[in-house]
Specification:
binds flavin-adenine dinucleotide; single chain; eight-stranded mixed beta sheet; alpha+beta; 24% strand; globular; 21 strands
Length: 455
């Protein structure tokens, strides 16, 4: 196979108000909103929808964005109602259940799980219906920046080998984990202390939780990571294991190599609650693998360009925040781009404000994510208290309400103090847990740690 060119083509460049790289949730959301605001928007997507993508569980704060886009009913029709999240307690039959109808301040009290092939196609076609010029099977291979730092030209190649070049007034990079602009401009920094990898597939016949919790996402810990169980339509369950690198390296230690299928099935046996629910389940899709995925760009925007969704940063899948963060940043970016095209003098200030807001929300998620598997957090989860409505604040965070709600944010800081006091109370255990995790996470991924790509 001839490798795709990565440099500029010689095609003459066409003018566009906004060029968006990537037609996933972030790109299609920004495209729909900007097209509706009257701008001439061109989206370049390398794949053809529908296509598989990981990231199936949405957050309640996603729902108002879907409503604003005008696709809420369609998404509900292809989704499974998600009333909450349950966290089985280690060594016990019961779970700690967080229901989204207990958030701190009234808001959307549920979300949905979706198959991303259907969801992404729906958003892509909706953006087209809103007036955006949507190009599938069109891979961006190069972005040329001028001496003033503005994007001057975007070169793309279509599946049939023909080329397309555009001269954008504004460039939005929504290319997800490909991070087209951040990679090209060397802005991307991987997080060396938060490495993990995921193995996942779709199964039929996995037992669901009873009653109103039937659509809950389950997040179950095990010694070397955690599992997700996400109920999808037609009795399908998305099941994944997120593992620390040390665990994955063991696969070649005992002689032969273990393939991804065998490793996933073996790993799922490690948690009694997951094992019990998967009795008699049948795998109906290939096992996918993705690794080493925590990173951020050192800057989010510059003159005439902005990075949104995973093209800017991705921390961890544990709280299912990726699609919400992608669509929320797309909505923020659409307003910013609209204002900047109309009044260029506002651009730099708007970019600073957007990055400050986004980074603040990401810091809250990140703080919880990094501590999720620690002995201290397990202690807090197994004996929950609700002083100062801290539990509701945590549920609000799990619902995605971390950006603009001051009542949630100050409580999350109080929660951190309680965490610190608990860490002091069980200092030797906390320290041991911290050292183990550091050692496990610092084992570097090798090229052969995972088979397979990065869906
Ligand atoms: C293991 C794992 C589990 C996850 N689980 C969840 C979950 O349950 N819930 C959740 O909300 N999130 C989850 N996520 C995160 C979620 O997948 C992403 O955060 C989300 O898809 C980001 O949306 P996006 O639009 O920014 O990027 P994407 O959805 O990745 O879309 C980017 C698009 O850009 C296109 N593209 C890339 N390069 C180019 C190019 N050069 N030219 C043209 N097009 C290009 C791609 O084809 C793609 O369609 C998970 C992530 C992982 C790794």
């Amino acid at each position: 196979m001839t490798p795709a060119p990565t440099v500029a083509t010689d095609a003459p460049a066409l003018q566009a108000d906004v060029v968006i790289i990537g037609g996933g949730p972030a790109g299609s959301t920004a495209a729909a909103l900007l097209a509706r605001a009257g701008h001439q928007v061109v989206v370049l997507e390398k794949d053809a929808h529908p296509r598989f993508h990981i990231g199936e569980s949405l957050l309640p704060m996603n729902m108002p964005i879907l409503e604003e886009l005008g696709v809420l009913d369609q998404v509900r029709a292809i989704g499974v109602h998600k009333a909450g999240a349950d966290f089985p307690l280690p060594g016990e039959a019961k779970s700690h259940v967080f229901r989204f109808n207990r958030t701190l301040t009234p808001g959307p009290d549920a979300a949905v799980h979706v198959r991303r092939d259907q969801f992404d196609q729906l958003l892509f076609e909706h953006a087209r219906a809103c007036g955006a010029d949507m190009h599938a099977c069109t891979r961006v291979v190069h972005v040329a920046f001028g001496a003033d730092g503005r994007p001057e030209r975007v070169d793309a190649i279509k599946a049939d080998g023909s080329t397309l070049a555009l001269r954008p007034r504004y460039l939005i990079d929504a290319s997800g984990r490909d991070t087209v602009v951040a990679a090209q401009r060397r802005l991307k920094r991987k997080n060396p202390t938060h490495q993990s990898a995921a193995l996942f597939s779709h199964f039929r016949g996995v037992a669901r939780q009873p009653g109103i919790d039937a659509g809950n996402i389950t997040i179950a810990r095990f010694e070397h990571g955690w599992f997700w169980l996400i109920p999808l339509p037609d009795d399908v369950m998305s099941v994944g294991a997120v593992c620390l690198p040390e665990y994955l390296r063991q696969r070649s230690a005992d002689g032969g190599r273990i393939d991804n299928e065998t490793l996933l099935m073996r790993t799922l046996e490690a948690n009694p609650a997951v094992r019990a629910r998967m009795q008699g389940a049948e795998r109906i899709a290939p096992v996918h693998a993705t690794g080493n995925y925590s990173y951020a760009a050192t800057r989010m925007a510059g003159p005439g360009w902005i990075l949104i969704g995973d093209a800017y940063a991705f921390v961890d899948p544990i709280f299912s925040s990726g699609v919400f963060l992608a669509m929320d940043s797309a909505r923020q970016a659409a307003a910013l781009v609209d204002a900047s095209l109309r009044t260029p003098a506002r651009e730099a200030r708007l970019q600073r404000a957007m990055q400050a807001r986004l980074d603040r929300g990401l810091r809250h998620f990140t703080w919880f994510i990094y501590r999720f598997n620690t002995p201290v957090m397990q202690r807090l989860f197994s004996a929950p208290r609700n002083d100062l409505q801290l539990e509701q604040a945590v549920i609000s965070m799990l619902a995605g309400d971390v950006f603009d709600n001051a009542a949630v944010r100050w409580r999350l800081y109080v929660f951190r103090m309680i965490y610190a006091l608990n860490a002091i109370a069980i200092a030797p255990q906390a320290l041991r847990g911290w050292r183990t995790r550091r050692r496990q996470a610092r084992v570097a991924f090798r090229g052969d740690t995972l088979h397979g790509g990065n869906p």
